[in-house]
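[stage:ingest] chain + small molecule (sodium ion)
[stage:ingest] validated
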Amino acid sequence: TKKGRVFSGARPTGRQHLGNYLGAIQNYVALQKEYDCIYCIVDVHALTTLETTRDIKNNTYEMALDWLAAGIDPRESIVFIQSHVPQVMELFTILSMVTPLGKLTDLPTFKEKVRMQPNNVNLGLVGYPVLMTADIVLYKADLVPVGIDQASHVEFARETVRSFNFRYNTSVLKEPDIKLTEVPKVIGTDGQQKMSKSLNNHIELALTPEETEKVVMTMVTDPARKRRSDPGNPDVCNVFSMHKVFSSPEEVAMINLECRRAGIGCVDCKKLFAKNLNAHLAPFRERRAALAQNPDDILDVLRDGERRARVIAEQTMAEVRDAIGL
Ligand code: ADP
Ligand code: NA
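[stage:predict] done
[stage:export] tokens:
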């Protein structure tokens, strides 16, 4: 028997990269042992920032493929698409009535979004944390795993639950606990910024070994090391950070030593990383290729997830409507 229910959502960003993998997916997979997990591809959230929805279906499919290949097990966990269970939109509307607007516009995450898209500050953008709250409480999650940057949104969800329950003198909505996950900030191939698709500094999991090596060879190393004969500093090198994750302790120790005395060059160091990364991802890639043989099976998984999510959602909404007196 499990410790409780976990909910987490991610926008449909298509093929996942090493940042997604180390920062989120690995944790999703691990949580399945101890919790009943619901993993949601939040396509409605994506509408707040997308300029076009052209790729949304394909991105959802590719992301689901990566999740399943990485070990999210649809027999254990519920994997589904947010918009397939429209009760979340109903709950969003209801929760928006107990949400002071000023609280939303004061959130640092909102201010950041306004900076990013000043010409498209739509109501959905302001209400993003309310929709996230609706996701969490519709499925009565006990626990929401988030990085520190999203913690304020779960705190917001807790406050919203308290406001709702107080206003309608009920206890139907459950206050979720925050599970602060130690999310490593994976740096991109530029060696500076957070790995991200939009910055095009990412390494996709689903690349071929050859493509992987090609991208890895573009990685920026210690900028002060100009020539092969210069000693390098692994402490400021993103390739070394990657070795710490994907290479053996012996290899890490060897690079740490040899880089500093110019015993190993950046080219060989990156080749070794590419080799180890490819070895690590080989089983994932095999599973992914097998799953991709039958795209309908992926859609079936998402439909089955929808069915199971709907049961919970309908139950919650019946209780919510009843509590309000609708
Ligand atoms: P979302 O907007 O839904 O969070 P992202 O694609 O930005 O979508 O991220 C999906 C998940 O992957 C999030 O949990 C995020 O924290 C994690 N993630 C994305 N990029 C990185 C990165 N460079 N380092 C660590 N974690 C990352
Ligand atoms: Na993000």
